[in-house]
Amino acid sequence: MRQRPSLSALAGPLAAALVADAVPLRLGIDVLAGATIVDGGIARPGGLEAGCRIAELCMGGLGRVTLQAGIQPDLWPFQVVVHSTDPVLACLGSQYAGWSLSHKEEGGSFFALGSGPGRAMAGKETLFDELGYADSGGHAVLVLESDAVPPAPLVERIAADCGVGTDRLTLVLTPTASLAGTVQIVARVLEVAMHKVHALGFPLDHVVDGIGAAPLPPPGKGFVEAMGRTNDAILFGGTVQLFVTGPEDAAADLAQRLPSTESRDYGRPFAEVFAAVNKDFYAIDPLLFAPARVVVTALDSGRSFHGGRLAPDMLDRSFGGTGRAGPGK
């Protein structure tokens, strides 16, 4: 039986290093109900490097995230590149925003989706039964895409669900419109591919390795624009290569069905799609959430199969490109 690593054990040192480097990373550190709260863009600015570090933390220490020059260096010359040695566990078991966290009280309510290695400690999602994975440890870490600090009662409940004291809980907050939030969301290019692989019924144990890249968009002004740009970076500019075992025809079929181009909702910037369904996520075709272009390599035969296409014009439309400035402009 394959031995699987502890996500919490791998992520613990990354969380500690993030806190230790808070000043150069322009992060805020606070304590709430005994838990460590890392501010990645609410009251403190954060930045691109913080986003890379948070994305690696989000993958439970099983991924590497870097910023590199892109292959289409016209208006958007840089890209977020992510690689994982265990795409199933890193992406579905940790990075996927699958834990719904909410709290209502007099005067308001809080809602966010939790990502990160703490999900496997709480085990609240049926996905972990499918993965056959559970985790435990002395420290829990979650990443919340939020522009608000969670209330103390929710913090206490998260710690209890993870089986740790609040003093052994770290929550990292990254607003969508922040620089760090932008990077850590675009760094999900491989994760959205893995999520669709799962939705399409392809055997997860046939996925051996994976790498993805998507252009780095400018942060949007406000939540909806920021959400649209980060999604569009993947839907219209993301590329993923998966290395799989099994029959060659299954790899070829996956390459054709996996890209975002195969969705009925493909063809408009995500913010427009979102507005057209009255901001109801559940009315959007779930198969839209995928990279624009995929390569699936069948390791047993050595052949690679390609599907989808990049759409740089849609990126310009979404990102607010104004064209290339000439001399003196």
From TrEMBL:
<keyword id="KW-0963">Cytoplasm</keyword>
<feature type="signal peptide">
    <location>
        <begin position="1"/>
        <end position="22"/>
    </location>
</feature>
<keyword id="KW-0378">Hydrolase</keyword>
<comment type="pathway">
    <text>One-carbon metabolism; formaldehyde degradation; formate from formaldehyde (H(4)MPT route): step 3/5.</text>
</comment>
<comment type="similarity">
    <text>Belongs to the MCH family.</text>
</comment>
<keyword id="KW-0732">Signal</keyword>
<comment type="function">
    <text>Catalyzes the hydrolysis of methenyl-H(4)MPT(+) to 5-formyl-H(4)MPT.</text>
</comment>
<dbReference type="GO" id="GO:0018759">
    <property type="term" value="F:methenyltetrahydromethanopterin cyclohydrolase activity"/>
</dbReference>
<dbReference type="InterPro" id="IPR003209">
    <property type="entry name" value="METHMP_CycHdrlase"/>
</dbReference>
<keyword id="KW-0554">One-carbon metabolism</keyword>
<dbReference type="Pfam" id="PF02289">
    <property type="entry name" value="MCH"/>
</dbReference>
<protein>
    <recommendedName>
        <fullName>Methenyltetrahydromethanopterin cyclohydrolase</fullName>
        <ecNumber>3.5.4.27</ecNumber>
    </recommendedName>
</protein>
